[in-house]
Write a structure and sequence with these properties.
- By secondary structure, the chain is mainly alpha-helical.
- The chain contains 9 helices and 2 strands.
- Mean pLDDT is 75; it is low at 146-163.
Length: 174
């Protein structure tokens, strides 16, 4: 329906990644380009590439073959993905409740879902992800985020990830 009602906008959205990356494919400045795995310009191809690119962005192991300089970003992103999964589980099993938790989670998830479609390269992804860091910090370093780690010798339950003062400061900021 959108291709009929808004053909220009439809074309722009379905070709956004290919259009932005088209002239940068062989550039030395585009070492971390996120090119579509499946080439093409249709909505179906965009919808197939979307979850592939989402996984690539959440688990950016492909950057490890590009050099050691990318290791800190890969580690950060793996932690961010881990915390997102943990928080999502808490939302789904109702162990995390409260309107603030849902609102902040929705904002962060909206940011991610939009980024998966539009981010042209991992460098842009990092810059834009840092803009969302206050939301990220509130979510994953709040009193609602607990992790259970099992080891052979002991069990550490409900590790608080941030001091109460930092949480109070974040709440005032938001």
């Amino acid at each position: 329906m959108s291709s009929v009602l808004f053909p220009e906008q439809y074309e722009d959205v379905t070709n956004v990644r290919a259009g932005v990356n088209g002239g940068r494919e062989d550039s030395a400045d585009a070492a971390t380009l996120i090119s579509n795995v499946i080439p093409g310009n249709s909505l179906l191809i965009a919808l197939i590439n979307y979850p592939i690119n989402a996984l690539r962005m959440l688990i950016p192991l492909e950057l490890l073959i590009k050099g050691v300089a990318y290791i800190p970003f890969v580690v950060f992103q793996l932690f961010a993905t881990f915390y997102l999964v943990q928080y999502s589980k808490g939302i789904l099993n109702k162990s995390i409740t409260g309107s603030n938790s849902y609102i902040i989670y929705s904002i962060y998830l909206s940011f991610l879902l939009t980024s998966f479609f539009f981010e042209p390269d991992f460098g842009s992804w990092v810059r834009h992800e840092m803009a969302a860091f206050p939301v990220f910090q509130f979510l994953f370093f709040s009193q609602n985020c607990h992790i259970t780690i099992n080891t052979k010798r002991n069990t550490i339950k409900s590790i608080r990830l941030q001091s109460q003062e930092a949480l109070k400061h974040l709440r005032k900021t938001l």
